[in-house]
Design a protein that fits this description.
By secondary structure, the protein is mostly helical. It has two domains: about 260 residues, no CATH class; about 110 residues, no CATH class. Helix content is about 65%, strand content about 5%. The chain has a five-stranded mixed β-sheet with strand order 2-1-3-5-4. Helix 4 packs antiparallel against helix 5. It is globular.
Length: about 450
């Protein structure tokens, strides 16, 4: 007995050391400072808050307030800089890695190291300083507590409170993916859970998870939240996203294979993760690119890791191997292609050339960076001359473009940083009030790759 205990302790220590290496590897993959428009949404939002602007009132956003205010409060404590913002993002990335480790450890200690390493590699396409990554970390921990509650068989209240808090936190970062989690939980309870578990405690989990969202009503009018967080993304966001569904379809068929296995071998303990994976896949359909898809397939990784065992028939083991290799190649090839498309944008020397050029030519406190370059407001320490962190013709309404044009005319920023190449994939149309105004009153004075600096040549009356 003593020798077995000693072996268990040694195994635990070895796995703890491996977890530390995985966390270090994840940090190494994401520590660099590469200008990115997606992380710019959060940077610009928090930068606006630092400068006294009010979210949803002084500037428009269609995502929940969690990431903006978290970075704002963090900056108030440690100081405003990109390094401190990245440190916060790395903390959430670490929380996601540990959360995944804890989940798969519940089902398969043998598969924990290799699947956790694969999970870390799947974070390569992530933009970690972003509401998507923050919500992924929160939902991983919500799933961990939910699964602990299922496994406890006594419905220990603390696990369900933890799951509710995790899901509620997820709602504060990203509404539709957290809604997918909620629907998956309800589906699981209706099909599998209600025979064995108490409805009262499940309802308590639901109430705790929705409480955080309800608190938003104390700070913003319900009509404003409905328009910004539900109507705008639901009816406008999908209009700019047309990604090939090849990767999504591959993952969906692997999910079906996993479901067949669960049905044949009666593996009910994985039923919640199977349900969760389906609704996660549905949630990314409007934008099924590699970056978003890689953040929602972790339930599938857990499932594949759990069913890969020596006693499992060899055809199943080979299917798992083929699935993992297929996923790895697909993500690698697609991510290489995406990086190749973006190299012209990401390789310009921001700190050595762009920022000095703005400092030397742009004395106004205001700047316009567009159509989709919100990171440049924070990077240049300028204020957005409009109420919109970005403007896309397939998403924002003509009234929004007209409002932005009027704001440009009113604030008269002496410079604009424009990158039209990166919005070709959104089918961006130049025939709009903002670009008409810019073409009339501004001329280019410098260029770095696809990014151009425009200077005002005539002041509108």
């Amino acid at each position: 007995m003593a020798s077995l205990a000693t072996k268990d302790i040694a195994l635990l220590k070895n796995k703890s050391v491996l977890l530390i290496f995985l966390l270090a590897g994840a940090a190494f993959l994401h520590w660099t400072h590469i200008p990115d428009a997606d992380e710019g949404v959060i940077l610009n939002g928090a930068w606006n808050l630092i400068n006294g602007r009010r979210l949803y009132i002084d500037f428009f956003e269609f995502i929940p307030p969690g990431a903006f205010y978290l970075l704002f409060w963090w900056w108030k404590v440690v100081g405003v800089s990109y390094a401190t913002a990245k440190l916060l993002a790395l903390a959430f990335l670490s929380a996601a890695v540990v959360g995944f480790w804890r989940i798969i450890f519940l089902f398969s200690k043998r598969s924990t190291p290799i699947m956790s390493a694969i999970f870390v590699l799947l974070t390569i396409p992530w933009i970690i300083l972003n509401h998507n990554a923050f919500s992924t970390a929160a939902l991983l921990w919500a799933a961990y507590f939910f699964l602990r509650g299922i496994q406890s068989r006594h419905w220990t209240v603390r696990w369900w409170i933890g799951a509710g808090i995790g899901l509620g936190t997820g709602f504060l970062f990203l509404q539709h993916r957290s809604l997918a989690f909620l629907v998956a939980a309800v589906t699981w309870w209706l099909i599998w859970g209600r025979k064995d578990f108490s409805l009262k405690i499940f309802l308590a989990f639901l109430l705790v998870s929705l409480a955080a969202s309800a608190l938003l009503l104390f700070f913003w009018p319900a009509k404003l939240l409905l328009n910004n967080l539900i109507i705008s993304p639901l009816f406008r966001y999908s209009g700019i996203n047309f990604y090939p569904l090849g990767p999504w379809i591959l993952v969906f068929f692997i999910w079906l294979f996993w479901g067949i296995y669960l049905r044949i071998w009666q593996k009910r303990r994985l039923s919640f993760l199977w349900s969760l994976q389906l609704f996660f896949l549905i949630s990314v359909l409007p934008r099924a690119d590699i970056s978003h898809l890689s953040q929602v397939i972790w339930p599938l990784l857990v499932g594949l890791g759990c069913i890969y065992r020596p006693q499992v028939p060899w055809p199943v083991r080979w299917m798992i191997k083929i699935s993992l290799v297929g996923l790895a190649l697909l993500f690698l090839l697609n991510w290489t292609k995406i990086n190749g498309q973006w190299m012209g944008i990401k390789n310009f020397k921001l700190s050595q050339e762009v920022i000095p050029a703005v400092e030397n030519n742009c004395s106004s406190p205001y700047l316009y960076a567009g159509p989709f370059a919100p990171n440049l407001y924070f990077e240049t320490r300028k204020l957005n001359a409009t109420s919109f962190s970005f403007l896309l013709t397939g998403m924002h309404t003509p009234a929004m473009f007209q409002q932005a044009a009027e704001e440009l005319k009113d604030k008269k920023p002496d410079c604009a940083l424009l990158n039209y190449a990166m919005v070709k994939k959104f089918n961006y149309q130049l025939d709009n009030p903002v670009d008409q105004y810019l073409r009339k009153h501004y001329r280019p004075i410098a260029r770095w790759g696809h990014l151009e600096l425009y200077k005002i040549i005539s002041v509108p009356q």
